[in-house]
Design brief:
mainly alpha, 18 helices, two-stranded antiparallel sheet, Glycosyltransferase, 495 residues
Length: 495
């Protein structure tokens, strides 16, 4: 520390304040959890309910699906625009559901209720996307015309183009992720609404059959490609979604047919060289952690390859291991090149906590070659990522809007940056919103709970609305963080 020459002349209490590490600060994880769930209300499309808490939002996208004479209202806008992309929405739903499956017991009853509402807002929509035989609706909204405007969802007058894939054209990735989402959510609603859970599971199986029968990437379809690329193309192949969907169906049904599927296809659909990713496009690390539960807790040795891959991935995260190769910022944040970096930090922290729970229940440790890694070590590593996001970082900034005393004010989000329709009922046309986009003023409405893309590899964040890679929130950054925060809300102090 370059200023240490002055320390001898400071009173002891001031010295303590200066050198007290950020990590010694305690965080209100329950408050952060509440806000992380609330965020999803700001992303809603469709008819908003009477109990809508994010009250600067109003109804939008009410004619979605009309070109197909079908109801495609509802669901979520994935980020700061007004398009409903099915691929990331389904992944968001899977992760919200997994958050509740693993950590719902750690949530206060009212927050668990809010989480179920957030999931159901998505699943009601996803059921609509698979409601017609041999067809899946994969997107609503033309992203080019949408991205050419800066307007509120309540005002949008851009093309609400519907993108559908009909058999025998393939959509294994989106149909597979939709199957995973519906299967996982069926477990969530099993006790509170068994009829709805049965509907979800029945449609999950139907979506999986579509995905598996007509194999291929949805973005290879010329009619769809122009709408989904380059935003949510399938960059990493569709095979992982088939296994991911089958693994969730195995967990939801306990069916031997899905067990056999993930056993026999481990090699043919697996990707041994690509196991260190987890996000809306690549499911391998999450798949391996998910399936490992059966190996660790049920002695299902035929699935050992998944456990080996999961542990290989987890070992790369721990700096003390010989296999460590994950990049970190100087401040300690997991970093991967590209945009929306915090999606990696939240999803990886989630997988660490899930695997830690599996290890703890079986009193096992992780063999990382030169060191053994305990459940507690995984939890401590995850906690560092969480605390960084909540403010323990070189900027001293919380990357969650509305949490802490200092957080991003100029996020890349149309509805948040433009005045609310309740404050400014007059129509704001496509290009009329540009003055708000270009303004250096803080956003008009706080999208409470939104986690932005985050800082660069140098830990620097400029709070610039135009820098969407850093300042845009997404549903799939928040979704795994719901589970992570639920764990730490119940276990704030790791001994």
């Amino acid at each position: 520390m370059k200023h240490s020459i002055f320390f001898h002349h400071l009173p002891m209490f001031l010295l303590f304040l200066i050198v007290l590490p950020n990590s010694a600060r305690s965080h209100d994880y329950l408050d952060a959890l509440s806000k992380a769930i609330l965020f999803f209300e700001g992303q809603r499309s469709g008819f908003l309910p009477q109990d809508q808490r994010m009250n600067w939002r109003a109804n939008s996208g009410l004619s979605d699906g009309w070109t197909y004479n079908t109801d495609l209202t509802g669901g979520y806008y994935d980020a700061g625009d007004n398009v409903k992309f099915g691929f990331p929405m389904a992944f968001t739903t899977t992760m919200l559901s997994w958050s509740v499956i693993e950590f719902g017991d750690s949530m206060p009853p009212h927050e668990l209720r809010n989480a179920l509402v957030a999931i159901r807002w998505a699943t009601d929509y996803l059921l609509k996307t698979v409601s017609q035989p041999n067809r899946i609706f994969v997107q609503v909204g033309d992203p080019r015309s949408d991205h050419n405007c800066w307007e509120r969802p309540e005002d949008m007058d851009t093309d609400r183009t519907v993108y559908a894939v009909d058999a025998p054209n393939p959509a294994s990735d989106v149909a597979g992720e939709t199957a995973a989402a519906l299967a996982a959510s069926s477990m969530v609603f099993g006790s509170s609404d068994p009829g709805y859970a049965e509907t979800l599971l029945r449609n999950a199986i139907k979506a999986f059959e579509f995905a598996d029968t007509y194999r291929g990437a949805y973005s290879d379809n010329a009619n769809v490609k122009e709408g989904v690329c380059p935003y949510y193309c399938d960059f990493d192949g569709y095979q992982d979604e088939l296994l991911w969907a089958a693994a969730w169906l195995r967990r939801a049904t306990k069916g031997d047919n899905f067990l056999e599927y993930i056993q026999t296809n481990a090699k043919t659909l697996g990707a041994d060289d690509n196991i260190n990713e987890f996000g809306w496009d690549n499911k391998h690390a999450g798949l391996n952690v998910l399936v490992s539960k059966e190996v660790l807790e049920g002695n299902m040795y035929s699935l050992e390859s998944y456990k080996a891959s999961a542990e290989s991935f987890l070992c790369t995260l721990i700096p003390e291991t010989s296999s460590s190769h994950i990049e970190y910022t100087p401040g300690g944040l997991i970093y991967r090149p590209g945009g929306s970096n915090l999606q990696h930090a939240t999803s990886i922290a989630f997988l660490e906590l899930v695997y830690a729970n599996y290890l703890a229940r079986t009193s096992l440790t992780l063999n990382c070659g030169n060191v053994y890694v305990s459940a507690q070590t995984l939890r401590q590593h995850a906690k560092k990522q969480v605390d960084y996001i909540l403010g323990d970082n070189p900027m001293g900034l919380s990357y969650m809007v509305g949490y802490g005393s200092s957080y991003p004010q100029r996020i890349h989000h149309r509805g948040s940056s433009l005045p609310s329709i309740k404050d400014h009922p007059q129509f704001i046309a496509c290009k009329e919103g540009s003055i708000y986009f270009n303004s250096t003023n803080p956003n008009s409405n706080a999208l409470v709970g939104a986690i932005v893309g985050g800082p660069g590899e140098d830990d620097v964040y400029a709070d610039d609305r135009a820098d969407f890679r850093k300042s845009e929130p997404t549903t799939y950054i928040n979704a795994p963080f719901v589970g992570v925060l639920a764990y730490f809300a119940a276990n704030p102090n790791l001994d």
